[in-house]
Amino acid sequence: MNDNCVENKIFDYDFYNRVDVQKLIHQYGSPLYIYDENILRKSCREMKNLMQYPWFVANYSIKANSNMELLKIIRDEGLNADAISPGEIHVLLEAGFEPSQIFYVGNNVSVEEMKYAIDNGVLVSVDSLSQLEAFGKINKGGKVSLRFNPGVGAGHHEKVVTAGNNTKFGIDSSFIEEVKQIAEKYSLKVAGVNQHIGSLFLDGKPYIEGVKSLLAIAGNFQDLEFIDMGGGFGIPYKKQSQERLDLSLVSRELEKIIIEWMKVYGREVQIKIEPGRYIVAECGVLLGTVHSIKTNYGKRYVGTDVGFNVLMRPVMYDSYHEIEFFRKGKLLNSDKRGISTIVGNICETGDILAKDREIPDDLMEDDIVAVLDAGAYGYSMCSNYNLRLRPAEVLICEDGLVRLIRRRDTFDDLMAGYR
């Protein structure tokens, strides 16, 4: 499948590959997450081929979306994976990843969680001196990676900036000597250094600066096996006004600075990245149903079943998602449009999907709402708040057939923990 087809599937709403959204809702319930396999595979290949360096590896960060069937596709495309909890390690192993393909990048983890990773043959990253001390006590002579804070942060919201001088993540680079002392104390082999500066950048400059800082830190450790530059690669949620991240520019800059660094370091090491959002965001759409349209004191509200229990990002990060509406399977393209606020069905004033959006005036109850670019941090942040049922997930396969890849919750699921 050529790249133009994939782009058209995103921007021209051929995403559904001739599948009727009304029928999908009827068969699998509302709300409903749907994913397109072609788009997922394309994104995997873009990240896998970001650099031509022979020892380059892309690790998918599964916190973005941990659906088992999507993980199998990502594994099939040749990506490794990052995990941030024992649960994610377990799911990755169940999805067929080898322990050597998993990198445990937790923070503030317990000794029991470290042991779980070690016992399963998974390499552990630590991000504080005390965590390194705890690791050394239970795995003397073992391999470890060190997550440093390079002093450079980036992201679309302060809550997703994961480096710099105002975040909990990583080891301050001024503590390099203390790190070495602890590693020597427990005969630990520092196999790698890693970082993650933040999420959803569309300008590669902060990322490049962060990599430069990490390389300077890495030069303090001999016999490294790898350097993990982190993820955060963004996608344009505002398709009409945001430019796509220039991956070719990022690639050229990375290759240049890494080659120069290795000349000084004296040998080659493996280079890793850890994309999450870039892999899965654009392959996912969240469908819901309009259940109420009303005006309160001059303000028009469109009430849907897409509450923040189903999609947390707009409430948590003030995130923007483009939204479309369908009627009888066809996209609504009315010339008459007005301003409305689109809300969910959760009993919270802040349950707002989109505020003051220009949408069709002729919108009706029972129309379908489609939230675009919902594949990342969508289902993975779902909850049963208000005892709402989590939605089903379906996959539009390469051949156009639709497959259920996670069933919808039932009332029995709500009671399962009490039995």
Automatic annotation (TrEMBL):
Residues covered by the Orn/DAP/Arg decarboxylase 2 N-terminal domain: 41-281
Modified-residue entries (N6-(pyridoxal phosphate)lysine), positions: 63
InterPro entries tied to this protein: Ala_racemase/Decarboxylase_C, DAP_deCOOHase_LysA, De-COase2_C, De-COase2_N, Orn/DAP/Arg_de-COase, PLP-binding_barrel
Residues involved in pyridoxal 5'-phosphate binding: 232, 274-277, 377
Binding-site residues for substrate, renumbered to this chain: 277, 313, 317, 348, 377
CDD domains the record matches: PLPDE_III_DapDC
Pfam families per UniProt: Orn_Arg_deC_N, Orn_DAP_Arg_deC
GO molecular-function terms, A-Z: diaminopimelate decarboxylase activity; pyridoxal phosphate binding
Residues the record marks as active site: 347
Pathway noted in the entry: Amino-acid biosynthesis; L-lysine biosynthesis via DAP pathway; L-lysine from DL-2,6-diaminopimelate: step 1/1
Gene3D superfamilies: Alanine racemase, Lyase, Ornithine Decarboxylase, Chain A, domain 1
Cofactor: pyridoxal 5'-phosphate
Reaction catalyzed: meso-2,6-diaminopimelate + H(+) = L-lysine + CO2
One Gene Ontology biological process: lysine biosynthetic process via diaminopimelate
Its job: Specifically catalyzes the decarboxylation of meso-diaminopimelate (meso-DAP) to L-lysine.
NCBIfam families (UniProt xref): lysA
Xref: HAMAP family: LysA
Matching PANTHER family: DIAMINOPIMELATE DECARBOXYLASE, GROUP IV DECARBOXYLASE
Subunit and partners: Homodimer.
Name listed for the protein in its UniProt record: Diaminopimelate decarboxylase
Organism encoding this protein: Pseudobacteroides cellulosolvens ATCC 35603 = DSM 2933
